[in-house]
Amino acid sequence: MNAILTLNAGSSSLKYGVYLAAGDPELIQVGQVENIGPAARILVADQDPRDLGATDHQGALQSI
Q: What angle do CA 45, 47, 50 make, to 5 degrees?
């Protein structure tokens, strides 16, 4: 499966979308890591939020 990952980085958040890259791109997952710094948490559509603790943008990307 080929997929496309899109990222939108802000000062304290990292939003993302994953698209299936067959024919017309189809969004298959969307979410964000918010409150990057002392108390980050990841929010994924249709899932409960998960606390990540203290992390930076690199840690947020690894969590995605």
A: 110
Three-class SS of residue 11? coil
Quick: pLDDT tens for 25-59: 899 999 999 999 999 999 998 899 999 999 999 99
For 11, other C-beta atoms within 10 Å of its C-beta total 7
Q: Which tokens sit at 52?
A: 């990540």
3, amino acid identity: A
Model pTM?
0.86
Name the DSSP class of 51: E
Residue 61 backbone phi and psi in degrees, to 5: -65, -40
